[in-house]
Amino acid sequence: MIGTGHLCYACNKRFGRFLPYRRGMKDVPRFIAAMDVIGSDVENFFCPRCGAHDRERHLLMYFDHASIWEKIRGGSVLHFAPEKILTRRIAEAMPAKYIKADLFPTAADITKEDIAELSFSDGTFDIVIANHVLEHVVDDTAALSEILRVLKPGGYAILQTPYSDRLQHTFADQGIADDQSRLQAFGQEDHVRLYGKDIFAKIEQIGFESRVCTHAQVLEKYVSQTYGVNSREPFLLYQRKH
């Protein structure tokens, strides 16, 4: 038993509560709540000590318990929308090449890249990380194809994204184009779709092999309430075929 209280997996500090995203469930649109979207734990979002958000903490858990660091050490890594703490941990693992990328870079060490039209040669990277990125990308099919292209044979892609397993098909509409409409329909002002349970088949149809695992399979001993993560969020790990 892990014990009582809350514990941040990123900084290993205990405290009374995590901080919510905005006002927590009070600000979750009705449609998103009704679709029971599997994504962030908005009530337990930020660590009050180090600032790590729940998606970053959960990804660190999966990295530690799904042998991801072994693949990063000495490898080549492309990391989109790089999170501060995860970035530091990746650098400490000493990859041979580590490129942080974003369409709108916010720091000098972040390379400007369009995930749907990458500048890298075929088979450049051992790992591509896109943690909650695809839901922001207009042409996600092109983005997935580009990720597959720049991966080495046998390379891995980490493709976390919110989705609803109540939706049979991904929900998107070009008419939903302003901030308020996107918030209500997709859950955030800069999201362009709400994925359904077909997200898994979509990724595999691009040419990836699924290595998806669940919290229950690899993180069973970590009580989600204690660590402030969504135990329903699987680890969307995919491999380029050899």
Question: Could you give a short description of this structure?
Answer:
By secondary structure, the protein is α/β, with parallel strands linked by helices.
Please describe the structure with a list of short key phrases separated by commas or semicolons.
16% strand; two-stranded antiparallel sheet; alpha/beta; Rossmann fold; 242 residues; 7-stranded mixed beta sheet
Topology:
Layout: E1 6-7, E2 14-15, H1 30-34, H2 54-65, H3 68-72, E3 76-80, H4 84-92, E4 97-102, E5 110-112, E6 125-130, H5 140-150, E7 151-158, H6 179-186, H7 199-206, E8 208-210, H8 215-218, H9 224-227, E9 237-240
Structure, explained:
The structure is a single chain. The protein is α/β, with parallel strands linked by helices and 242 residues long. It has a single domain, classed as 3-Layer(aba) Sandwich (Rossmann fold), CATH 3.40.50. Helix content is 27%, strand content 16%. It is built from 9 helices and 9 strands. It has a 7-stranded mixed sheet with strand order 5-4-3-6-7-9-8. Strands 1-2 form a two-stranded antiparallel sheet. A hairpin with a 6-residue loop joins strand 1 and strand 2. The longest helix is centred in the N-terminal third of the chain and has 12 residues. The N and C termini lie far apart (41 Å). The relative contact order is 0.18. The mean pLDDT is 95.
